[in-house]
Amino acid sequence: MLLQSKCDTCGDLSFIFPDQIEAIKKNDNLKLHKYCKDKLKVGDDWFCIKCDASHKDGSKCKIYTEIPSDKAGKLIKIRERETNLKNMGFIL
After folding, report:
1. Measured between alpha carbons, how far is 32 from 17 in angstroms, rounded to an integer?
2. How confident is the model at residue 8 (pLDDT cuts 50, 70, 90)?
3. Residue 50: what pLDDT?
4. Which helix (H) or strand (E) covers residue 19, if one does?
5. Which of 14, 23, 46, 69 has the highest Cβ tally under 10 A?
6. Where in 1-92 does DSSP place strands (E)?
7. Which pTM was predicted?
8. How far apart are CA 76 and CA 51, in angstroms?
9. 63: helix, coil or strand?
């Protein structure tokens, strides 16, 4: 399942990948940790990293939509390839 969040403050749209959710759940020091429930769904609160980095209120963000499975699968594969290349030392 691939979700997308939308921030009401800056309008940023961001993908929420399953591996990110699992990593966030394991690290309770992250601001996003309290937003990672067992089952995330459209309409749940989320946190905008872009606003937080700009010293704005990052809590005005929601999970906006669930990406259809065919498109989600393609995006997840692209992200896996990018991650593998970065781990091999390539700068993208």
Report:
1. 13
2. very high
3. 93
4. helix 18-26
5. 46
6. 3-7, 13-16, 45-46, 61-66
7. 0.75
8. 24
9. strand
- Cα 38 from Cα 52, distance rounded (Å): 24
Q: Which residue has the higher pLDDT, 92 or 54?
A: 54
Length of the chain: 92
Q: How do 3-7 and 61-66 pair as beta strands?
A: antiparallel
**Residue 47: Cβ-neighbour burial (10 angstroms; 0-12, 13-18, 19+):** buried
Residue with tokens 């089952």: 39
DSSP secondary structure letters along 37-56: -SS--TT-EE--HHHHHTTS
Predicted confidence (pLDDT) per residue in 34-90, tens digit:
998 788 999 999 999 999 999 999 999 999 999 887 888 888 888 887 777 777 787
* Residues forming a β-bridge with 63: 5
